[in-house]
Design brief:
This protein has 270 residues and is an alpha/beta fold. The chain has one domain (6-229): NAD(P)-binding Rossmann-like Domain (Rossmann fold, 3-Layer(aba) Sandwich). Helices cover 49% and strands 16% of the residues. The protein is built from nine helices and nine strands. It has helices at 23-34, 47-56, 73-87, 110-138, 157-176, 207-218, 231-239, 241-248, 251-268; strands at 6-7, 10-11, 14-18, 38-43, 63-67, 92-95, 141-146, 182-189, 223-226. The N and C termini lie far apart (52 Å).
């Protein structure tokens, strides 16, 4: 087996992006390719992944498409194995995959509870668990998890719970792996322009998250909240939890949070 390829005297850098075909994921893939990475695109096999595969095809051998359901461990293991066969190493894992849920926990179905945790928390846990032997053997690597400000202020039902869990896992892994040369960073976006937030106007684009991801790979940090306007509210809600209780415990706020979600469900007939 040959070693990692070298271009212009520099070692090839390889990144896996889980959730590559989504709004944030696809922008991140493009940003990594522009930055010189070889990229493994992991996402469910669908039209979005097919379209992205056609777009990045001109990058040739620097791109590997691996249709992957991250809720299935066998598929995650196959993803890592295929990345190693092609590129011989894994320098970065970016966990972007995530799905939303009803803001109201009471409105959620049992299937929704299970699916959100399976993708947002266990999916990220499985991809990290699968790449760790590789990164430990290399004595290097960077893991970047995309959480949410909803993982700091509990206001969105099971979605918030999944992002709180991801934040806890991110913290424990960062400490566990510190002496192994592996960096672990959490990016916590507020509302950005993606299909998940299609009904909201005036949001910053997903590029702001992709930029934070590349910055975290280059210079790891504990966490990064984007856009910056969310940092003060997050600080206040953590420092004064009773404030969050007063604001989000107000019946009018709860009605507003859930109004659009319930209307969408009624329209879909679910």
């Amino acid at each position: 087996m040959s070693g990692p390829s070298v271009t212009n005297g520099a070692r090839e850098r390889v990144a896996i992006v889980a959730g590559a075909s989504g709004g944030i994921g696809s922008v991140t893939v493009r940003a990594l390719l522009r930055d010189g990475f070889s990229v493994v695109l992991a996402a469910p096999p669908d039209a979005l992944l097919d379209a992205l595969a056609r777009e990045v095809a001109p990058h040739g051998e620097r791109v590997l498409i691996v249709p992957t359901d991250i809720t299935r461990r066998a598929e995650v293991d196959a993803l890592v194995a295929r990345a190693l066969v092609r590129f011989r190493r894994i320098d970065a894992l970016v966990n972007v995959a995530g799905i939303g849920a009803s803001p109201s926990f009471a409105d959620s179905t049992d299937a929704e509870l299970e699916r959100v945790l399976a993708v947002n928390l266990l999916g990220a846990a499985r991809t990290m668990h699968a790449v760790l032997p590789v990164m430990k053997a290399q004595r290097s690597g960077s893991i970047v998890n995309v959480g949410s400000v909803a993982g700091e202020a509990a206001v969105l039902g099971i979605y918030s719970a999944s992002k709180f869990g991801l934040r806890g896992l991110n913290d424990t892994l960062r400490r566990e792996l510190r002496s192994d040369g592996i960096a672990v960073t959490l990016i916590e976006p507020g509302f950005v322009r993606t299909p998940m937030n299609a009904a909201m106007n005036g949001l910053p684009g997903p590029e702001i998250v992709a930029d934070a991801i590349l910055a975290a790979i280059a210079r790891p940090r504990r966490k990064h909240i984007v856009p910056g306007k969310y940092r003060l509210p997050v600080f206040l809600f953590n420092a004064f939890p009773q404030l969050a209780d007063l604001v989000f415990g107000d019946a009018r706020i709860q009605r507003r949070l859930n109004r659009d979600a319930r209307a969408a469900r009624e329209e879909a007939g679910t």
